[in-house]
Amino acid sequence: MQKSLEKCSAIDYLIVLGGRHVNETIYLADERKRLPSLVKHHRASPGRLIRECEIPPLFDVIISGEAEKLIAEIGELFSRCNQSPATFIAENLDMKTEGRWIADFPRIDNTLVSDGVPLKRDELPSVVGTFGVTASFDVFEGRMTSHIFSDTGPGCIYDCNFCSERRSIAGNIQDIQGAPRRLYNQLNETVSAVMQDHPSKGASAFVEDSIFLSGSPVAITQLCQLLEKAPLEVIFGGQFTIDQILRKKDLIQRLAKCGLRYIFIGLETLEPQEIGGMSKDVDGNKQTWKDRFLQALDFMAANHIDCGCALLFGLGEAHISRRNLLNGLIKLKQETGQPITLSANWAVRHPLRSSRESENENYLRWGTPEGELLEYFHRFGEASLEYPLPNVCAPQVGEVKEIILLLNEFEASDA
Questions:
Q1: How far does CA 173 lie from the centroid of its chain?
Q2: Which residues form a coiled coil (predicted)?
Q3: Which residue in 268, 262, 246, 279 sits closest to 338, CA to CA?
Q4: Is the model's pLDDT at 167 over the cut of 90?
């Protein structure tokens, strides 16, 4: 990529980097104190790595935080500049542009911090309204599937120590009041987009919140009221925890009557105590995680809701526990038809801002060397040979291979 860009004029292109890694490596310790001098750079900050000449100066602008309005502002400035884009943008960017963001310009050694004007989330264009609907999730039986967002927060309401989306890193719930209406509007947009672009297909949507509407009973009730008052020809899915399903049965049933047909849960393991516990294991003192999972599965099936499970290996569990987990899920699917799908990840150590375990890592060894393990890793959403969790062994070829064989067996299983 860099060689291709070298053939272009310096004002023909602008490379902007953002995402979770940037949010975890370029940040303010206190969001209320918004000064460039207070911006912290983790050892793995792309801006720091460029300044220290550890990676090429490929990125013109590196954005941490809420960039929904900022990226449009940068694009508008870039379209007007006839000189060095980074310099022109840095000189003209308005700190009052909505959102809590940091814009780092490592090539010119400049960092800007927004005033922190809150985003008006109800006024932001939706993903489905902007890009339409092009996906189709198997779990929705051939319907076209949109990705929709309540925008109630950048992460999860729980604080599991192995998760990069945990509350203490990603932040708390935000702007929950308008979330039900935002979701309803996006469901409505989904129906319209599918009718226009895929008239022979039905409509479906997956709510991409870490937890559906942050698990708020009030917000879920309001969404149900909207769907009951003006029903839509759409089915949808989202994420809940096991304990939320069991604690909110009335709300889940109400959602099911409004179109909820799929719930994706973070099962992770059958033995939370083996991995040091999980924040979302709320009712662990009452009943085992496994027993509650089975109860939730039965409840979903009784309400015509399919279940998918996320599994996370490399948390410190024994390999026999992984085998038992997968063999148990295979048997369940053969006997009940549920869960219908699995996703698998291998736990990875993330920068996590000021985390002691990663504070000296530059994360430049992220890539997995060519070989058998690299091929196996393609089966996982996330996996790393070099960056396992602290005090946990790196993935072993034989163990990873066995897990893949069991995942294949699960996929081939039928009730």
A1: 15
A2: none
A3: 262
A4: no
Contact at 8 Å (CB) between 114 and 100?
A: yes
Which residue in 299, 122, 303, 148 sits closest to 234, CA to CA? 148
Q: Which residues pair with 144 in a beta bridge?
A: 203
Query: 101 exposed, middle or buried (CB, 10 Å; 0-12, 13-18, 19+)?
Result: buried
Torsions phi, psi for 365 (to 5 deg): -105, 25
Residue 67 near residue 99 (C-beta atoms within 8 A): yes
Backbone CA torsion sign across 138, 139, 142, 146: negative
Window from 61-65, 157-161, 222-226 with minimum mean pLDDT? 157-161
- Strands 144-148 and 110-113, bridge-based pairing: unpaired
Interval 222-258: pLDDT, tens: 999 999 999 999 999 999 999 999 999 999 999 999 9
Q: Is the pLDDT of residue 351 over 70?
A: yes
What average pLDDT is seen over the chain? 92
201 vs 63: CA distance, rounded Å: 38
**pTM of this structure:** 0.90
**What's the pLDDT band for 23 if we cut at 50, 70, 90?**
very high
**Sheet bearing 203-207, strands edge to edge:** 144-148, 203-207, 234-239, 260-268, 306-313, 341-346
The answer to whether residues 374 and 395 touch, using CB atoms and an 8 Å cutoff, is no
What confidence score (pLDDT) does residue 174 get? Answer: 74
- Per the CB < 8 A criterion, the answer to whether 59 and 15 are in contact is yes
Per the CB < 8 A criterion, the answer to whether 193 and 202 are in contact is no
Task: Note the helical H segments in 93-178.
Answer: 127-131, 167-170
Rounded Cα distance, 58 and 91, in Å:
20
DSSP state of 27: E
DSSP 135: B
| Band of pLDDT at residue 272, cut at 50, 70 and 90 | confident
